[in-house]
Design brief:
The complex is a heterodimer.
Chain A lengths: L7 H24 L2 H21 L2 H27 L2 E2 L4 H21 L4 H22 L2 H20 L4 H23 L2
Helix pairs in contact in A: 2-3, 2-7, 4-5, 5-6, 6-7
Chain B lengths: L5 H4 L1 H11 L6 E3 H8 L3 H13 L3 E8 L2 E8 L1 H19 L12
Antiparallel strand pairs in B: 1-3, 2-3
The chains are: A mainly alpha, B alpha+beta.
């Protein structure tokens, strides 16, 4: 017992409380909005790749453009909503990470052109999933498993089932993102 | 040698300071976000925040966002330093080193 009337056991318990709250706060702040955003992009993949399977040419391109625009608008809405609750200048770094990844994906597709639509889809998916892996390393392991799992699914589908790649990506890639997003939302509600 | 801080050592205030100190230096959280995160009631959190504010450990900013009143909370530099000292004192108690009694407030 110390002069403050505090035993080592009580100090250990208080310190454990400190570490737990610190960990929960960092995760909650980093992941705020993360689950719904992942779910939104899962739906974008589901709709976009189903469109790629059933549509051709301009209709396919328009559907992807519309899905991506709606996905971006939904993401910005979610980010704006959660940013009202926590005002953290450092939080913009996650946004910058995704902006950088989008630019890298665009440059990779540009310098690799001409590409088949399947290969383009695979490259973009892999770059985006790399973002999930980075989030997984620094924020929460769920993103790591989601990013690695969807990447492995995408490569497997591209190599083994090239004729069914769009369907594969719609249901397994998009489905995994929807499932993962809902899981993250429920876990960090 | 760091000392235990009676103002921070109270269990709810320890959790509040842990949450606020784990954020970036200029980060602010909305009152209701902190309440939900720590699973406290409005009255309980409000009372402890007032004590911490009186001690100079947190700063409350009342503002309007989209015409709705909102209160944002952040740890001050003084609060962060006191929290670091308090955690160091807890570690010393565990290691069996005797910390001196704190001067900063009440339990």
């Amino acid at each position: 017992m110390s002069a403050n009337g505090l035993s080592a056991e009580e100090a250990r318990s208080a310190l454990e409380t400190v570490r737990t709250v610190e960990r929960q706060t960092r995760r909650a702040v980093s992941l705020r909005g993360g689950g719904p955003i992942v779910t939104v992009w899962g739906v974008v993949w589901l709709v976009g790749y189903l469109g790629s399977y059933f549509l051709d040419g301009i209709a396919e391109g328009l559907l992807w453009m519309l899905a991506n625009l709606l996905g971006a608008a939904a993401t910005l809405t979610i980010v704006a909503r959660v940013a009202r609750r926590v005002r953290d200048p450092a939080a913009g770094r996650i946004g910058l990470l995704w902006l950088a990844l989008l630019l890298f994906a665009a440059v990779i597709v540009w310098v690799s052109w001409p590409l088949t639509y399947e290969l383009m889809g695979l490259l973009i998916a892999l770059v985006m999933m790399f973002g999930y892996v980075v989030m997984g390393i620094f924020v929460d392991r769920t993103f790591l498993w989601l990013g690695s799992g969807v990447s492995a699914l995408a490569v497997t589908g591209y190599l083994l089932l090239p004729q069914q790649f769009e369907l594969w990506m719609a249901f397994l890639g998009g489905g995994a993102l929807v499932g993962g997003g809902l899981y993250i939302t429920r876990r960090w509600r | 040698m760091p000392s235990l801080d009676p103002l921070i050592h109270q269990p709810v205030r320890l959790r509040v300071m842990s949450a606020l100190a784990s954020l970036g230096r200029e980060a602010q959280v909305e009152f209701t976000y902190l309440r939900d995160l720590l699973e406290l009631t409005d009255g309980n959190l409000g009372a402890h925040l007032r004590r911490l504010e009186e001690g100079g450990y947190v700063r409350l900013e009342k503002t309007f966002v989209e015409r709705k009143p909102r209160t944002y909370v952040e740890a001050t530099a003084q609060g962060r330093e006191a929290f670091v000292r308090h955690v160091a004192a807890l570690e010393e108690v565990i290691r069996g080193i005797e910390p001196p009694s704190g001067q900063g407030g009440e339990s």
